[in-house]
Amino acid sequence: EAGVVQSPRYKIIEKKQPVAFWCNPISGHNTLYWYRQNLGQGPELLIRYENEEAVDDSQLPKDRFSAERLKGVDSTLKIQPAELGDSAVYLCASSLSRTGGVEQYFGPGTRLTVT
Amino acid sequence: LAKTTQPISMDSYEGQEVNITCSHNNIATNDYITWYQQFPSQGPRFIIQGYKTKVTNEVASLFIPADRKSSTLSLPRVSLSDTAVYYCLVGLRKSSARQLTFGSGTQLTVLP
User: Fold this and answer.
1) Is there a contact between B93 and A31 if contact means CB atoms under 8 Å apart?
2) Which one of B40, B67, B72, B101 has the largest count of C-beta atoms within 10 Å of its C-beta?
């Protein structure tokens, strides 16, 4: 079974430019998460989707970040415009909706460098 | 909100058993305890999850006392490849984003 797929794996952009990350979750996983991980820290949850609905985006910086999950499968996270402080690894994870606990499956992440 | 506390780092030698403890004094009645492992340049990997007492799978055991205010991840006979950061996460799939944000984890270094 294929795992969570993310692209690109690496991205270097200049500040003020836009950037987008793509995620394809594990087939059948209705819950999708986007995390940001800064160097030396644990992942911070930005947004959680149940199917196509964003049910918790309380930690998403909405002035420059946006996300969508059309048709309840693939998802895209966008930053516009990017700032130097956005340099981090952006992780996507998915889980089965029928599970109560936090058994998530993570992709390899996209390492973003803003210069 | 169940905040977790773990040791920042631990060292061990190959072949030893390693126990990493996580404190979560404010755990809610329905919360699960989940442990992840993360290698450099990879996303976290699910290791084990439990609600109470003891859970064992092919890679680890999880011990949870009756009051559930802490949990211990036990890795039997570690090898060099177990060197990684280990995170404990407390909550539910539907917990808030703030609760599902990972702490700083425990850096385990296995020495030859």
Assistant:
1) yes
2) B101
The percentage of chain A sitting over the pLDDT mark of 90, rounded to a whole number, equals: 85
Residue B1's pLDDT is 64
C-alpha–C-alpha distance, residues A101 and A31, integer Å = 12
Superfamily of the domain at A5-110: Immunoglobulins (2.60.40.10)
Closest CA to B33 of A100, A48, A98: A100
Q: Measure in Å the smallest separation between the Cα of B107 and chain A Cα atoms.
A: 10
The contacts of residue B83 (CB under 8 Å, 6+ apart) are B108, B109, B110
How much is the mean pLDDT over chain B?
A: 93
pLDDT of residue A98: 67
Q: How do the domains of chain B map onto residue ranges? A: 9-111
Among chain A residues, CA nearest to B51: A101
Q: Is pLDDT of A24 > 80? A: yes
CB pair distance less than 8 Å for A43 and B102? yes
Q: Give the mean model confidence (pLDDT) for residues A44-70.
A: 93
Q: Searching chain A, which residue's CA lies closest to the CA of residue B103? A: A42
Mean pLDDT for the stretch of residues A29-41? 94
* Domain spanning B9-111, CATH architecture: Sandwich (2.60)
Chain B closest CA to A46's CA: distance in Å? 7
Contact A54, A40 (CB under 8 A): no
Domain assignments of chain A as residue spans, ordered by start: 5-110
Quick: pLDDT tens for B43-85. 999 999 999 999 999 999 999 999 999 999 999 999 999 999 9
Indicate yes or no: CB of A40 within 8 angstroms of CB of B92.
Answer: no
Any CB–CB contact under 8 A between B47 and chain A? no
